[in-house]
Amino acid sequence: AQTVTQSQPEMSVQEAETVTLSCTYDTSESDYYLFWYKQPPSRQMILVIRQEAYKQQNATENRFSVNFQKAAKSFSLKISDSQLGDAAMYFCAYRRGAGGTSYGKLTFGQGTILTVHP
Amino acid sequence: GAVVSQHPSWVICKSGTSVKIECRSLDFQATTMFWYRQFPKQSLMLMATSNEGSKATYEQGVEKDKFLINHASLTLSTLTVTSAHPEDSSFYICSATEFLAGEKNEQFFGPGTRLTVL
Question: Does any CB of chain A come closer than 8 Å to the CB of residue B57?
Fold first, then answer.
C-alpha cells in the first residue's frame, strides 16, 4: 500500500520569506501523480500544484514550486514570497496512474500547519 | 476549475437519527465521487468510492451499513449516516471527478459538511 509522510506538523514563516514543506512517499508503482493541497480555515481543499512522476522537470505555479526527487521518493513544496493568505494546512497527496480498481484514490499525508507572521 | 457543492454545510442532529449529506457536481458529469472524513487538525480519511450506477466501494474499517452511499446520477452522490451517535460527529468532505482517457482527471472538492451529533 502507498503511504505518504509529512514529518513537519507545524511550520512558520515571516511574510515575504521562503518556506519549504517536506513530504516523502512510498510506492512500488512507476506511474503516479503527486499533489500539494491547501486547506485554509474555511476547510475548502484547494489544489496548489501537481507533479506527474514521469516528468523530470519540477512543477511550478507562480510562487509555488516543488522539488521532486523520484529516487529518494521525496516531494517538497517551496513557497516563495510568503503571504498572509498562504496560512493554511497543507497536505501532500499521492495518486496512482491509470488502471486498476484504486484509480483516482488519493492518499494524503498527515498535513502541515503553516503559520505566516506579518 | 469545476465546482462541487455539498448540502448542508452544517447539521446538528440527535443521537439515533439519520442524516443525509448531498454532494453535487455543478458543471461536469462526475463518474466517480469520493467521500472523506476529517477530524480537527487531522488528515482526510477516505471512507468510500462511488461510481455512478454501481455500489460504493468502502475502505477497510468503514461500516457500509452505517454510512450508506448512493450515486444515482452523474451529478449527485449522497452519504447517509444512519443511527448517528456522538462519535460520528466530524467533518465530511466529498470530491468528484470525471474520468476521461488522457485527461488530468483532477478531483474537485466540495466545501464540506460539519456534522454534530448530540
Answer: yes
* Nearest CA among A84, A97, A95, A91 for reference residue A112: A91
Q: How far apart are CA B72 and CA A1, in angstroms?
A: 30
Taking CB atoms and an 8 Å cutoff, what residues of chain B touch A42?
Answer: 111
B51-93: pLDDT as tens digits: 888 889 999 999 999 999 998 898 999 999 999 999 999 999 9
How many CB atoms neighbour CB B9 within 10 A?
Answer: 12
**Helices and strands: H and E segment counts in chain A:** 0, 12
B116 Cβ under 8 Å from any chain A Cβ: no
Min CA distance, B57 vs chain A (Å)? 10
Distance of CA B118 to the CA centre of its chain: 21
C-alpha grid cell, residue B50: 462511488
The alpha-carbon radius of gyration of chain B (Å, integer) is: 14
Yes or no, beta carbons of B97 and A104 under 8 Å apart = yes
Name the β-bridge partners of A115: A12
Query: Residue A86: is its pLDDT beyond 70?
Result: yes
Copy the grid coordinates of residue B9.
454545510
